[in-house]
Structure formats: C-alpha cells, structure tokens
Design brief:
Structural class: alpha/beta
CATH architecture: Alpha-Beta Barrel
Low-confidence stretches: 202-210
Helix content: 25-40%
Order of helices and strands: EHEEHEHHEHHEHHEEHHHEEEEHEHEEEH
CATH class: Alpha Beta
CATH topology: TIM Barrel
Number of helices: 14
Radius of gyration: 21 Å
CATH superfamily: Glycosidases
Bound molecules: 6-O-phosphono-beta-D-galactopyranose
Length: 490
C-alpha cells in the first residue's frame, strides 16, 4: 500500500482564540461567552440576573481562576509559537478569529480596527512561516452582549450581525485565508447550547439553576444558524472566489457503536449519530433539513420560523468541504444513560478497546473509529474532509532534565494516522490532518492547563502561576519526521 499521504496534504496544528490568545479585554475586545466560563462543561456561567434591567450581566466568581483570560498569551507571543510550528515543517495552522475583537458587542455598525490589525499581522506571520491559515469564524466565541441583549442565535437579528462580521473579515483577509470554517462543533448545540450555539435563556426567567434552555429557542437557533451558514458560503464565494468555506462538526459521535446486536441498540445508535452529528451535517452538506429533525419538532409541538428565502439559501449554498474533530468512539445501549463531554459520547465502556488515556480524563483510544467516521461521512456527503482536531490531553510534568517523554501521545497519533491512510485508500478525500493543541493551551471542557495536548510544553498551571516558557516534548521531533516524510515515516 502507498505509504505516503497525498502530495498536497495539509500537516498542521489547531488552536482556538479563546483557549490560547489571552488578552481578553485588550485593544477594544469585549467579553465573549467563554470569558465568563471555566471550561464549557461547567454549567454555571459567571452571569447574574439584574432585576432592574431584566437582563443577565457578567458577574465573575471570585473563587474561580479564569485561565482563558490570559491563556498562554498567544496574543503577544504568536511569533515565537509559529516559529516552533514552522520548526516541525507544518504547512497549515488553524486558529479562530475572536468575533469580539472585530465587533466587540457584536452589533456595532463599524469594526474595531485594532482587532482587524491583530489578525492581519497573525495571518501574515503564518504565511511568512509557510503555513496556510485555516480560520474558524466562531469557536465558542459569540460576543457576550449578543447573548445578554438578544438571547443569542434564537434571535433572527444575529443573522444580520453575522453577515456584517463575515463580510468584514472575508474582505479584509481576501487572498490570505483560503480555508474558512464556520461554527466550531455547532452540533454540540443540543447538549451545550450556551457556548456551541451562542444561546442563552432569552426568556427573562430568573433562575438560580444552571441556565435552562427552552426547546423552541434551541431549534430556532438551529434554523438561524443554518441560514447564517448558507450566507457565509455565498458571501465567501462572492468576496473571494479562491476561498473555500467548510462546516466544522464534532464527529467522535459518528463513531457511536451499538452495544449489542439488539435492534433497539442498533436503531438507538443510529438515532444518536443523527441527533449528535448528521442533524447539522445533512443541511450543511445536502441543503435539506432532514425528516427526523422535523419529527422532533412535530412531537415537541414547535414550529421554528424559517422563511422560503432561508430554505432557498440553505439548499443552494452548501459547504465546500467538511471539517471535523475526532477524539474517540462511544457506545449506545438502550439501558444506559449517555453522557457527553468535549471528546464525544460517553456510553458503556467498550470492552474491545484495550487502551484509555490516563486518569482523570480516561478517554478510550479507538483509531479504527476514525477510519469508520471518515468513511461514513465520505459516503454520506461525498465532500472533501479536513481533520481539524485529533489529539490527546495528558497530565504531564517535565522530569529533572526538563524533558517530557510523551510516548502515549506519539502512539496515539501514529495509530490514528495509520487509519487516516487506510481511509484515504478507501477513497475518502481527506486533505489534511491538523493536530489539536500543538502547544499546551487551556482545555475547552474543563478550563484547565493541566490537560496538556501539546508537542510544546507551556509553563502555566491551573492556579494561574507559571512563566509561560515554552519547551519541546519528545513528540515534537517525532511529528517533524512524520511531516518531512509526508507520512511515510510513521
Ligand atoms: C473540542 C473543541 C476544542 C478542544 C477539544 C478538546 O470540543 O473544539 O476547543 O478543546 O474539544 O477538548 P478539551 O480541551 O476539553 O480536552
């Protein structure tokens, strides 16, 4: 079998503004929703209900450490970090534009020039270092004001604010950014509507429970995002015909296996694939809102507002490619409650998977699940696929020589790349692999620094201390060789 990957294969790393930049209020930026959360798995955002204004407002918890506010100071250190990425021979790098740097409240008429300038300089640096920018337009970074003032994506006005934002950045970065991703892991909306879909409780319900979401709001947000996504493709192609616009879905949940051959388990696993992934993939890639979604609406007695022109947009402007995160597989069993986290579905442990990552996260390791996921999505959508997140978080500490021998990470990546190569041989048009978290950054799910993904160690800790010094782990040189050989030296 041909051991090399396709000649134009993109080898790179991926991060997100809110997990690495820091500078959370610098140069005009205003808070986004993740700035009031310590990890997106934490249900209680730092918000308080104001009886007077009848609105939610930011109220940070003095007992919590919001590591994302300083991140790893990528905002000021990106040249050093990109130099390290270049040192591995990467030819692509993914990050996000924090919407709140461009339109701090999200509803302004004019953009914030200091924010535009930062990303101009950042993208210029990537290109100088030989890396294609792969840019996410919204990576859980909805401006907080759009949530507290409008209730987030369940309010149709956000479509216009979004069109203004993407028109601004498509125009400004025309010719620099060829690959745009719309809403990071927006399919997590059903379980995590506050950050994934920028939804907040739009009914001024004063509740001391974690923000409850009205089902009707969630599905109205869904419809508005489908429309906004279509507008993004249309505007992208009109402003820069050379750019491509892709969706980005958390796809570990595609690898949800029925726990037994009980038809209930088989049907249940398929339903879970649908309501965890395909319910966005289908309209994004085929232009059709599927019948199983409309059944949910019928049975919930809701009828989200969707105009004829919206449906036309959704049908005509499907995405150019499908991008995905994959971390692990899960199982569905009719008699087990499913849990979820940023890695995907957590059902009954799969007895056929020998390995899990070390505690406390203990994510099962299933490389074949990635081959399965790539094939399922390829066969369903017939679109090119870009892997924009795959990686493993480990609790690591440099030894007495300042070294980190991260063999577990090397093995994890090796085994997953072997399966990516199999998928390419199967006919899947996979055109890149961007490793998640090439330098240690703040964990999305738990808001920790302790959960380290990087080839590069960053000296920062959960309590906020640390020098931010960067140092190389063993995996850095190993991945460099993989890239140099275009995957032949796996
Ligand atoms: C995905 C997010 C990323 C990244 C990844 C790992 O959901 O798109 O932001 O963080 O999960 O999750 P975690 O950081 O919680 O380990």
């Amino acid at each position: 079998m041909n051991k090399r990957f396709p000649d134009s294969f993109l080898w790179g790393g991926a991060v997100a503004a809110n997990q690495c930049e820091g500078a959370w209020l610098t140069d005009g930026k205003k808070p986004n929703i993740t700035d009031v959360m310590v990890g997106i798995n934490s249900p209680e955002p730092g918000l308080a209900w104001n009886e007077e204004t009848q609105k939610w407002e930011m109220k940070l918890d003095p007992k919590k450490v919001y590591l994302s506010h300083e991140g790893i100071d990528f905002y000021h250190r990106y040249k050093e970090d990109l130099e390290l990425m270049k040192g591995m021979g990467m030819n692509a790098f993914r990050t996000s534009i924090a919407w709140g740097r461009i339109y701090p409240n999200g509803d302004e008429e004019e953009p914030n020039e200091a924010g535009l300038k930062f990303y101009d300089d950042l993208f210029d640096e990537m290109i100088k270092d030989g890396m294609e920018p792969v840019i996410t337009l919204s990576h859980y970074e909805t401006p907080l004001h759009l949530l507290t003032e409008y209730g987030g994506w369940s309010d149709r006005r956000l479509i216009e604010f979004w069109k203004r934002y993407v028109t601004t950045v498509f125009t400004r970065y025309k010719g620099k950014v060829k690959y745009w991703l719309t809403f990071n892991e927006v399919n997590n909306m059903y379980r995590r509507p506050v950050v994934s879909a920028g939804l907040l409780n739009i009914h001024p319900v004063h509740t001391d429970k974690p923000l409850e979401m009205e089902t009707a709001d969630i599905w109205q947000g869904y419809c508005n995002i489908l429309t906004a996504n279509a507008w993004t493709v249309k505007l992208g192609h009109e402003i820069d015909p050379d750019c491509q616009v892709g969706c980005m879905l958390s796809s570990s949940s595609v690898a949800t296996y029925p726990y037994t051959c009980d038809p209930e388990d088989v049907m249940g696993a398929y339903q879970l694939q649908r309501i965890s992934n395909f319910y966005f993939g289908d309209p994004f890639c085929t232009g059709i809102i599927p019948g199983y979604v409309k059944r949910i609406w019928r049975e919930a007695g809701i009828a989200p507002v969707l105009y004829e022109e919206d449906l036309q947009m959704i049908k005509e402007y499907t995405v150019d490619f499908f991008s995905l995160s994959y971390y692990r597989s899960g199982t569905y069993s009719k008699d087990t409650e499913n849990a979820y986290d940023t890695g995907g579905v957590k059902g009954k442990p799969n007895p056929y998977l020998a390995k899990t990552s070390p505690a406390p996260w203990s994510w099962p390791v299933d490389p074949v699940g990635l081959r399965y996921t790539l094939n399922v999505l390829s066969d369903r959508y017939h679109k090119p696929i870009l892997i924009v997140e795959n990686g493993i978080g480990l609790d690591e500490t440099p030894d007495e020589n300042g070294e980190i021998h991260d063999d577990f990470r090397v093995e994890y990546i090796h085994d997953h790349l072997v399966q990516v190569r199999e998928a390419i041989e199967d006919g899947c048009e996979v055109f890149g692999y961007l490793y998640w978290g090439p330098m240690d950054i703040v964990s999305a799910g738990t808001g920790e620094m302790k959960k380290r993904y990087g080839f590069v160690y960053v000296d920062r800790h959960n309590d906020g201390t640390g020098t931010l010094k960067r140092s190389l782990k063993d995996s850095y040189d190993w991945f460099k060789k993989v890239i140099e050989s275009n995957g032949e030296e796996l």
